[in-house]
Specification:
Layout (H helix, E strand, L loop, with lengths): L1 H18 L6 E10 L3 E10 L6 E12 L13 E15 L6 E8 L5 H7 L5 E2 L2 H8 L2 E2 L2 E4 L2 E2 L7 H6 L9 E7 L4 E7 L12 E8 L1 H11 L4 E8 L2 H17 L6 E7 L7 E7 L7 H11 L4 E4 L3 E5 L6
Parallel strand pairs: 1-12
Antiparallel strand pairs: 1-2, 2-3, 3-4, 4-5, 6-10, 7-8, 8-9, 10-11, 11-12, 13-15, 13-16, 14-15, 14-17
Length: 321
């Protein structure tokens, strides 16, 4: 039996030498650990073969992120890492002569306790169902995820560098999954998957990115858009549209008339200046002649259909100041 094992080890070692030096491959995988209202934590695993058949370095990190960074770049909407802790750094080794496997622990952090982390980050993100995720993934055009003219992910040129790091050439990436906690959206994006080009042959990254709370709310606003609305007026400033909305709500109450939900959206047509539109969230099919006449009494004769295709950002407001 021992002789057989020795022969197999020799065959293994010989075959490895015949194959030559392998390409260097680095794999990055991230797992969502937990979150709270202002931050979240990711478990990050990096594996690196160092262009060797006999060594695989595995490093595990705890990455902690702030959902709304104090010094956030103007054009960015991603949460920023504020702390990285190395939990474990080890080599998995294969003896080139005998094929025996061993491990060499380079760094081990025994001070970071899982119970402490779960107390600090108690919330779990829930996964979007297929129908809602299909809406989001359908926004991907030329490396962007958009709705109308609102761009929620960086453009194709800057996204790889911002998320995956610097590459010699621009890698392709894929949106795989969406999850959400109490105020933030998390997107799993990957490069180096089957059918998706990687920067280095065999290398792969699968990352979680967090859309900051304010932008997450915009994503929801766009996902819930209806194709058509009734427009009750356009204004240069959002404050003017909100003021008009509140006046209409008061007027409807005084007339004891049911009023559809009112929304204020910024809108831009082509290269024209951005304006702010007051719209009624109601189905066009539900507006019967009598109901439409009642709405005209409140809003005047200016009600007209409008497409939501050019809606940019919704201004949320309370019914009274």
């Amino acid at each position: 039996m021992k002789a057989t094992l020795a022969c197999l080890a020799c065959i293994f070692a010989s075959s490895m030498s015949l194959l030559g030096t392998p390409d260097r491959t680095i794999t990055v995988d991230e797992d969502f650990l937990g979150s709270n209202a202002t931050s979240f934590a990711i478990l990050r695993t990096e594996t690196d073969n160092h262009s060797s058949y006999y060594r695989l370095q595995v490093t595990r990190y705890l990455d902690e992120y702030e959902k709304t960074p104090e010094q956030q770049p103007v054009a960015s909407f991603l949460a920023r890492r504020i702390k990285r802790t190395t939990l474990l750094d080890m080599d998995r080794l294969i003896d080139p002569d005998t094929g025996a496997k061993s491990e060499n622990v380079r760094t081990r952090n025994d001070s970071t306790q899982l119970a402490d982390l779960l107390t600090r980050y108690p919330e779990r993100a829930y996964r979007w169902d297929g129908s809602r995720f299909a809406k989001l993934s359908s926004w991907k055009r030329d490396g962007r995820i958009t709705s109308g003219q609102a761009n929620f992910l960086s453009n194709y040129t800057s996204l790889p560098e911002e998320i995956f790091g610097k590459y010699e050439h621009r890698p392709e990436w894929k949106l795989e999954q969406a999850t959400e906690d109490m105020n933030s959206l998390y997107l799993r994006v990957s490069t180096g998957l089957e059918g998706v080009e990687a920067d280095d042959e065999g290398s792969r990254q699968s990352r979680w990115i967090c859309i900051i709370p304010a932008k997450t709310r915009q994503v929801h606003d766009h996902l819930d858009l209806q194709p058509m609305y009734l427009c009750a007026g356009s204004f240069p400033k959002a404050e003017e549209a909100v003021k008009q909305a509140r006046e209409m709500i008061t007027k409807a109450r005084e007339a004891k008339s049911a009023l559809p939900s009112l929304e204020v959206w910024s809108v831009q047509y082509g290269s024209s200046p951005v304006c702010h539109t007051l719209v009624l969230r109601t189905s066009m099919e539900d507006i019967q002649p009598d109901a439409f006449k009642q709405l005209q009494l409140i809003f005047g004769a200016s009600l007209s259909p409008i497409s939501s295709g050019c809606f940019l950002e919704r201004t949320h407001f309370k019914e009274s100041p």
